[in-house]
Amino acid sequence: EAGVAQSPRYKIIEKRQSVAFWCNPISGHATLYWYQQILGQGPKLLIQFQNNGVVDDSQLPKDRFSAERLKGVDSTLKIQPAKLEDSAVYLCASSLVQTGYEQYFGPGTRLTAT
Amino acid sequence: SQQGEEDPQALSIQEGENATMNCSYKTSINNLQWYRQNSGRGLVHLILIRSNEREKHSGRLRVTLDTSKKSSSLLITASRAADTASYFCATDSYGGSQGNLIFGKGTKLSVKP
Fold this sequence. Notes:
The complex is a heterodimer.
Chain A: E1 5-7, E2 10-13, E3 19-24, E4 31-37, E5 44-50, E6 53-56, E7 65-68, E8 75-79, E9 88-95, E10 104-105, E11 109-113
Parallel strand pairs in A: 2-11
Antiparallel strand pairs in A: 1-3, 3-8, 4-5, 4-9, 5-6, 7-8, 9-10, 9-11
Chain B: E1 5-7, E2 10-14, E3 19-24, E4 29-37, E5 43-50, E6 55-58, E7 61-66, E8 71-76, E9 85-93, E10 101-103, E11 107-112
Parallel strand pairs in B: 2-11
Antiparallel strand pairs in B: 1-3, 3-8, 4-5, 4-9, 6-7, 7-8, 9-10, 9-11
């Protein structure tokens, strides 16, 4: 079975620019997650979708970050405008159902904001 | 906020030795999961242990869970150079947003051939 796909793999932008990341989860997985992983730390959940509805976005900095999952399949995460501290790896994951099951992670997008 | 705290932060062993990593957490959980991350890659799920389980095995992996101490350990037996990676515990908290995993900072394991 194909894994979680993410693009781009790497992105370098200047601060105050905008950037968007794309994720395609494993087919049939209803739940999709976006995580931010800063160097040397574990992933931190930004937003969780169940189908095309938001379940939890309590840690999403909504003044600059937005995410959508139209049609309940693939998803985009946008940062507008980026700050230096947004430099991190952005990981997308999916799971069959919300809880009690493993999450499958994509390779991530490494963002460098200069 | 990060709930899980792994210990040690870094571990260096010789091939063939066993590696033990510990994880402590703060709130009641539904389950606890361990993930591996190779440098520059995404996370790979290793094992999930539910709150009513005390021990689980998968190949060379052994996980224990002590809910009274809010702690878990991951044992990798007969380690190989390919086990070199960062290992994270993640908790799915009881009463929290379901499926919302909270990760620790990880243990960086280095296995020397």
